[in-house]
Structures are given as C-alpha cells and as structure tokens.
C-alpha cells in the first residue's frame, strides 16, 4: 500500500467524483482510477459504488476513510512537528473560537502575537460551543477559545483567561435607557431578543432572568450579535450582551446599561486536548495568551 493511494482515495471520497479529484491533484483521471483499483485489489474489497457520474463510498469504504484520514492527519502533524522542532517560528497554529470573539478579541490577540512572531501561520475555525469542544477532541484544532469555560470535561483541559460582564441593551427611546444601572427584574415585562438555542450566551441570559424572578418573553432570535443589536436599536425588544459584543459595526446602536442585580458575567477560556503535549509553536502561543490577558488585554 502506497501513501499516494491513500491520498487519492481520500480526495475521491471527499469529492465523490474521480475527475474532480484528478483535477485537484493535478494528475490524469486514469492515474487516479488505477491507484484506487490497485488499493481495492490489495484490500480485497470495493471502496466505491458508481452513482451516475459520481461515486459513493461503500459501508466498508466509509470505515476505511476514517482510518485513512486519521493516518494522513497524523503524518501531516508529524511533518509539521519536525519543522517546528527545527524552527518553531515558522510553524502553524490551528485556532478555534466562537463567532462572538471573531470581531475584536481574536484579531487583537493574533495581531499582538504576530508582531513578535511574524512568520507563524494561523488556520482559523469558528464554531458553536459543542462543535468547538468536538474540534479540539478530534484534533481539528490545536487550541480554542470557548465561552463559557467547561468546568467538567475529561477530554479537554485549560484555563479561564477572562471574565466578562454582560450589559442590558435597550432602544434609545426606552424608559430606562438613560439610567446608569438597572435591576434585571425591571425588564420582566419586555420582549427579549436572544441568540438561537445552541449558542452559549442564551443559557447565561435565561439563568440570569431566572435569578431575577422571571422567564423572558422571547420575541426574536438571531445568530449574530450585530443582528441582535440592530433589532434592539430598531425597537424590537431588549437583550443582554457582553461588553465585547458592543464593538460598533453600524450606525444603529442600542443604549447600553449596567445591570446591578444579578451580576451577570460569562467566562472565556482556552481549551486543549487532555493528556497531550502541544506542538512547540502552540506552546509559545498559549504562553503568550496567558500573559496577554494578565497584562496587555484592554476591554472596549
């Protein structure tokens, strides 16, 4: 079995098309077909079934794909680790983070790191809370920002780097918009604009409202902080957002009011796989971030 056969097999499996795979690999279609055929002969199984112009993995082909992807991934990481051992300044960092941190925090910390290590490359992957943990566990990323920080998960380890306060956001015309601070219970009769289910800020807001003695009346739901800010600014309701989400991206901005009671916060942490040593370049970045949030990070 040759490495080339595995590479061709994985590319065909991902694209479900031999010709497209050959084009991406910059080889003749016949060469790809020949290597796939030899691989099937060596394994004694059929990896693909023909479906019109496309190909589809057989059940055993799907099993083999998972193993082949893992093997090629391990090989890529081994090569990368060797290069990083020779010179970690030219390594690559695979960083995961939620969408809410992509506007301000991640660009800020990466830019600061790149000033010291200009040749280090980054590969970014955004996701929601469950997918970020899965990406770390499955080694799709080396390290990830996550919020809230998972207190109990044996598969990942890490530390809280930041605790951020949440504020009430209100339409400018709202009766409480000019107040320096409010109690959350003062909003119990309002319509709330919240993140969709599955976004980590939603349960934080729901729990804060429960502590304040009410269940919020949810009138609108969204997937982006900018959408929620815009709906509130347009008078569609009220919401709670962290300070970082107040970064001004449009002319329509709501009023921001501090919440006295309860004190609502979210934790932002860094997670990595448990029981594994980080590549040297990622160790450098991790140490930098710990120091950055202790001494350099400035909130909005």
Automatic annotation (TrEMBL):
Organism lineage string: Bacteria, Bacillati, Bacillota, Bacilli, Bacillales
UniProt family annotation: Belongs to the LysR transcriptional regulatory family.
Keyword DNA damage attributed: no
Top-level taxon of the source organism: Bacteria
Gene Ontology CC terms, in alphabetical order: cytosol
Chain ranges of the HTH lysR-type domain: 1-58
GO molecular function: DNA binding; DNA-binding transcription factor activity
Organism (species): Cohnella endophytica
Keyword Oxidoreductase: no
Alphabetic keyword roster: DNA-binding, Transcription, Transcription regulation
Protein name: LysR family transcriptional regulator
């Amino acid at each position: 079995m040759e490495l080339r056969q595995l590479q061709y097999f994985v590319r065909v499996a991902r694209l479900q098309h031999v010709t497209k795979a050959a084009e991406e690999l910059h080889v003749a279609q016949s060469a790809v077909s020949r290597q796939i055929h030899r691989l099937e002969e060596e394994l004694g199984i059929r990896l693909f079934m023909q479906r019109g112009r496309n190909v589809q993995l057989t059940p055993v082909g799907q099993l083999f794909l998972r193993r082949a992807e893992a093997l090629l991934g391990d090989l890529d990481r081994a090569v990368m680790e060797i290069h990083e051992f020779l010179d970690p300044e030219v390594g690559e960092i695979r960083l995961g983070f939620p969408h809410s941190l992509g506007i301000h925090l991640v660009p800020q910390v990466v830019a600061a790191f790149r000033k010291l290590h200009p040749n280090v490359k980054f590969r970014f992957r955004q996701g929601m809370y469950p997918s970020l943990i899965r990406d770390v566990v499955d080694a799709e990323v080396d390290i990830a920002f996550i919020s809230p920080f998972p207190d109990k998960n044996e598969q990942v380890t890490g530390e809280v780097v930041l605790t951020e306060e949440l504020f009430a956001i209100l339409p400018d015309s709202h009766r409480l918009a000019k107040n320096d601070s409010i109690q959350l219970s003062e909003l119990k009769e309002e319509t709330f604009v919240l993140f969709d289910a599955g976004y980590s800020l939603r349960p934080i807001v729901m729990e804060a409202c429960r502590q304040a003695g009410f269940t919020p009346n949810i009138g609108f739901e969204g997937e982006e902080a900018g959408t929620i800010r815009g709906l509130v600014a347009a008078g569609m309701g009220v919401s709670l957002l962290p300070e970082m989400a107040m970064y001004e991206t449009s002319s329509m901005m709501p009023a921001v009011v501090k919440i006295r009671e309860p004190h609502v916060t979210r934790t932002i942490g860094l997670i990595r796989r448990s029981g594994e040593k980080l590549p040297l370049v990622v160790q450098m970045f991790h140490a930098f971030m710990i120091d950055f949030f202790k001494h350099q990070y400035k909130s909005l």
